[in-house]
User: What shape does this take?
Amino acid sequence: MPSPFNRREFLKRIALASTICGGAGYLAWAPEEYPFSLKDVTGLRSRPEPRQFTLPDYRVATAPGMMEIGIGRDMTTEGRLTKALEPIGGLSRFVQPGDVVLLKPNVAFDRAPELGATTSPELLEVLIRRLLIDCRAKEVRVTDNPIESPADCFAKTGIKAAVERAGGRVLLPDGNAFRPLSTPDAELIKSWPCFYRPLIGVTKVIGVAPVKDHNLSGASMGIKNWYGLLGGQRNQFHQDIHTIIADLSIMIRPTLTILDGSRILMRNGPTGGDPAYVKPWDVIVAGTDQVAMDGWAFVNLLQRDASTLPHYLFLAEEKGGGKIDPAGRIQESA
Amino acid sequence: MKQSPLPHARLFTPRRRRINRTHISGYEVVSSVLVLLALAAVILWVVSRKNHFDPAHQDVSLEALEQVSGSTVLYQRPLKPWQLPGTTDGWQDIDLGIFPDSVASEQWRPKTRVKTFDPENLYVKINGEAERFLRHGFTQLSYLVLQSANQIEEISIELYNQGSIAGSTGIFAEHRSPESEVQQEGPNTFFTTSIGGIGRKGTFFYRISGNRSSESIAQKSRQLVQSFAELPDPENTEPFGYQLLQELTIEQADIRHQAVNVFQYDFAEDFWFGKSDGAGQAEMFVHQAQSPESAAELLAEIVEEHRYEYQTIRQTENLVLFQHRFLKSYFIIAIQDSFLFGADKTADEATSFQLLEMIGRALSKK
Assistant: This one.
């Protein structure tokens, strides 16, 4: 009976088996930095990579004859808001029935609203009612990502209670609510974790910011408000505050920006501490050009010299975030 | 055609197994039965025991273990029981840390435990403002929230340890406005706000803010300020400039330290300022340089920069008197050994020289 193996066949099979075993051994045990190594001691290699996303342009088409910025002065919040929205076509020009609206107030600190460090809860309450009743928005979400305890911040500023009274929904951040946002034209945040979850399904975005002094940037108003959507180690951006604010002006193109000039923190911002630093006023500014709005508010609400406009405004203008000069685009309601 | 060497190789043969033996002994049969019975008995025993394993069955006795064991403390009992954050029951057990015990009472209970922040994570509490405190030597923030017994009112207390008197006076000066009515009560310098108060004691700076304006919050804020007198005194002696200005009978409340950017010059650092009674807006200032040479260099730089906005009225080797070109106020600066001193925003020449002489006399005694 002939032998089933001859020597050549035997050697071929042994070589094949050795190659397979050796290859598998290399893939499994070779150090992580070696080519094709599958070793994963830290588990980082097999960590799922979150997918990047980009924000759509939330702006609405410009209407002929409409102003870009409206200023409203009145004794009541309701009146102020109505007058500020009139020159730009009213709220219903921006929000249609069925829209899911995201409001981004400044809730950065667990401070009482009297200190002027956060957005006024009264304004938010009025705005949410308008959006739900007048504009028939499907849903109004309110969110911010304060570095301090978000629950404490929303509670102590009175914003949580105001939103719930008006029928809105507060969305607080958690570790899984962030995904990298791609902003190719930005300098510091080309790809940076952004508070993503509240933006899912949103059709309109409105920034509602206080007007206040800021220790580093000179002022914190409409554009700086978007800082609250950033995640990660964002405190590092304070080393280059003007560049990051300019980046924020192109990171998101909101449907509308509202500057709350009812309590203006004139000094010792951004946290304040003494109600004496806060100037009660009767102004609300609403508009679509955040750069122009910030410039106007810096001079007219914070009452600073026009020659000392914050550097970030010029950077934002260069990047295409808006135009500082509001001439011909701004109107105050009678 | 070449044929594969293993055309029909099979792992298992389909042929029927053939028993080679023709006889099995009785001894072999009996022993097999016994083994099977033993196995059945083991199975029955395991089934009957079910999950009732006796852990002590094979334990080594404690005595035997003690003989070969050393003593290891596995759990250190905490000094005080842990308190669930956000609960107010058992508030007496909450560790108040640096805060004096008198800040809490039956009427004003701690709402949460004390949170502390250091220079590494201060931004978590006051994002955007941390740099201001760090500039003034910040070392630690202790944060406490008190809640009234009716659970309606709240007071937040931020207690910053600035590490030095210079740091606390510096940050306090940045918080007070010209309208602030600063009061001095013992070691406490403070002013009240409509919802609390802001002040300093030793190396500490504090901000007290209630969630609304009310009489009870005002009263409690006042009591808190008094409590802060119990805060530990600074370990280091008072800085030279602070001592000197106090010797000139300037109230603590009117003394401030500016760490950087003095007179808006980035090269001028570490100056002490004090407001003297009856001198209007005028402020005396003093700076101790490393050496007479560095003091002279600093003086030369200040004088050179000042000439852009001031007109030189008088200049000697050790003294320069300026007048502002538009405001018409006076600025006098002099040098003595390694000290630079003078007065700013004085209304006339006589006052300038009078204040300068006061500081010069005090320096001579040193």
